[in-house]
Specification:
The chain is mainly α and 95 residues long. The chain has one domain: Methane Monooxygenase Hydroxylase, Chain G, domain 1, CATH 1.20.58.1000. The protein is built from three helices and no strands. Helix 1 runs antiparallel to helix 2 and helix 2 runs antiparallel to helix 3. The radius of gyration is 17 Å and the shape is elongated.
Amino acid sequence: MKSSNSRPLQTRMKRIMGQVAGIKNMMDEERYCVDILNQISAVRSALDALGVELLTHHIEHCVAGEKSSAHAKAKPMSREQLLAELRTALSRFLN
């Protein structure tokens, strides 16, 4: 994925990686379980937000072709195949 919003997504991903590393440190330090669980919840929320951004980008640029470039388009497939792929992606993300 190369686009103008790639940089913010990379920054968000680095922040998430830092949060995960922080959870490991908390566990190594045997910190209070509820504090660790709160951090895990924060990481889940951050990953969900990242996923929404990626799904939105995929729909706008790869599926609908909005402002798309040659490398951002979905592989050639019928409308039904494209919708099936999108349903699968949404199902995996939402579960």
